[in-house]
Design brief:
The structure is a single chain. This protein has 195 residues and is an alpha+beta fold. The protein folds into 2 domains: 59 residues, no CATH class; 130 residues, 2-Layer Sandwich (60s Ribosomal Protein L30, Chain: A), CATH 3.30.1330.80. Helices cover 15% and strands 43% of the residues. The chain is built from 2 helices and 10 strands. It starts with a helix and ends with a strand.
Amino acid sequence: MHHSIYKSFFISKVMLLNFLMPSAVLFAADGAAVCTEVKKAELSSRNGSASERKCKAMSTKSKAIVERLRPGDDFQQSLKRIASEHELKAGVVVSAVGSFKTACMRFAGADAATEIQGPLEVVSATGTISESSMHVHISVSDSSGKTFGGHLMPGCKVFTTIELVILDLSDEWSFERKMDEQTTYLELAPAKNTK
């Protein structure tokens, strides 16, 4: 019964995605891509016919890295360790759910990190990561619901847990960073692997 409810929920989500985003990547419950392009049917007022729905196969050369971080672990140091252990050339932080005892982040336009005392709920974490570099942003909320967000800095200590999921794209991509003359920052320089 639970499988049936989940399947129904999943199908509803796919239909909603198709409605909201006519061109989108849809993923099956096991994470495999279903289609890379879904074009909404266009109804012609003249003949009432629908145009053909198009889906094309997508490369699924990716895998997930899933890990639970423990109380006291430093989030940034844990990401670096995971990237090194998995020889990660290109990864995307997909999800990080849990809590911090303290959070350290650099706010937009700031030169230095700000430390926020917890306990704090991790509202979101997203970014790109490799063995050589990372660019991750986090959002946390305090007990009143006030939310803070910024660039991840060392010092985010896990309070109870962090349930972490990283999408490993290393079979197809390499993420390096190069100095951008316009921004004067090290910016992402993604390279498609030629295997």
